[in-house]
Amino acid sequence: MALRIYNTLTGSADELVPGGIKKEKIGDYPPVTIYSCGPTVYGYAHIGNFRTFVFNDFLRRYLKFRGFRVDHAMNITDVDDKTIAGAVTESISLKEYTERYTAIFQEDLTALNIEPVEHTPKATESIGAMIEIIDLLVKKGYAYAMEGSLYFPVDRFKSYGRLSRLNSREIKSGLRYDTDEYAKDDVRDFVLWKAPKENEIYWDTPVGKGRPGWHIECSAMIRKIFKTTIDIHTGGVDLIFPHHENEIAQSEAAYGEQFVRHWIHVEHLLVNGSKMSKSLGNFYTLRDLLAKGYSARSIRFLLVSAHYRKQFNFTIDGISQADQALERFDNLLIRLKEIKKEGAPNPHVPNLIDSIFADFTGAVDDDLNISRGMGMVFEFIHAVNTMINDEKLTRMDADSIMLALKKIDAVLGFIFSEGSEKPGIDAAWVESMIAERLAARNSKDYGRADAIRRILLEKGIILEDTREDTRWKIRN
Q1: CB–CB of 16/231 below 8 Å?
Q2: Dist CA 431 CA 438 (whole Å)
Q3: 316-418, CATH topology level
């Protein structure tokens, strides 16, 4: 079965064809070239941002699982309206300001087990590539000057609006925007190069003194790294217009070739059914959630498990449900390790493993339907637990199943958690926490009881409630 992913540009689920030329075998394709819009480093990234970043990670992991090679770039926007304003407010240099938040962002990626990509270009290190594009646009008549700034005339690019399904009648010829972001119902010429302002950083270049507009940055970094048309460009749905629309216009006008073959956009994340807002009290950065005792592993589980083209409602109850789902994995891993039975392997195990790989791949090949894929994985867990209960597995079977889970986790990134085995656990402390949890439950303080379970889980301790008491195990 071919891997088909919804393409915003065509409005259909298109087969992924790296390099644009179909091959007989996946191994014959060139590396899949991917560019993901990265963070603007002016503050802590929020959980909605991380929905997209976790999706990007899931995408690259799945492509590798399917046998594709991957060449992936994610940029760091370290010069734009927001970063400059932040640096000015704190009275520090732009470099100092953005390097601080870049380091914080990298720490957050590590916490969520997001793989490093092959390229992480910074906008400030790509000014030369931006000037190259702008110079081409000037020479081809796709740029004009006004009060020291350079603008792209959108009405000159005849296919402008095809990504965002923009009606050409909505375009306001000759009107301009200097800001980086604006609404789809007010389409104007966008800025390529901004004239210098007092107290703002600027570069002295062949196209004049100033700094880049936001949209030219990504086009330049893509061209600098990949040199030609790329296979996949990802981002949140909020970037379709104007950012991605403008990227297409300036890149294709400059170089006369298709910019991107496959556009993949991730839907919005809601919190408690509403758009995130500090005034509503539902605005969470990753660090807010970790500080409250929630697990990065559980957050990753939630974000991976939701289909990327559906709005996802993030709730605290959802994290608790993720904790419970992850306990199913943890308990299975413990049970598999405890199997000591020798003898011939069960002949049904290879078929079971083949089936989970076929079912999982069949689901995810259909527009990255991880929701259905996860259903297949939990059916597999149930089948394995049944075989363990019936004492039908040998040590060799357990090893084979463990290896299969590791292959699936190369996509999911949350089954096996680093550092989950915790030597030197203080048993008396664990028992005291269990007693405190029991007291909280008896007094109907279920929030505190759940918090204690999470604290223990972070320490690698799994609780099992029975009719008689609560037992605990060290997660392996």
Answers
A1: yes
A2: 10
A3: Four Helix Bundle (Hemerythrin (Met), subunit A) (1.20.120)
Q: Which residues contact 334 (CB under 8 A, 6 or more apart)?
A: 462, 473, 475, 476
Residue 466 structure tokens = 């029975």
Tokens of 177: 């925007």
CB atoms within 10 A of CB 220: 27
- What three-state secondary structure class fits 397? helix
Give dist(CA 55, CA 264) in Å, integer. 10
232 bridge partner residues: 34, 262
**Structural contact between residues 49 and 36, judged by C-beta atoms closer than 8 angstroms:** no
Q: Which pLDDT belongs to residue 170? A: 61
**Do 230 and 35 touch, CB atoms closer than 8 A?**
yes
pLDDT at 231 over 80: yes
Bridge partner residues of 211 (DSSP): 194
pTM, rounded to two decimals: 0.86
Residue 174 has pLDDT above 90, yes or no: no
Q: Which CATH superfamily groups domain 4-271? A: HUPs (3.40.50.620)
DSSP-H helix ranges across 227-369: 245-255, 286-291, 296-305, 316-338, 348-364
Q: What is the pLDDT of residue 463?
A: 86
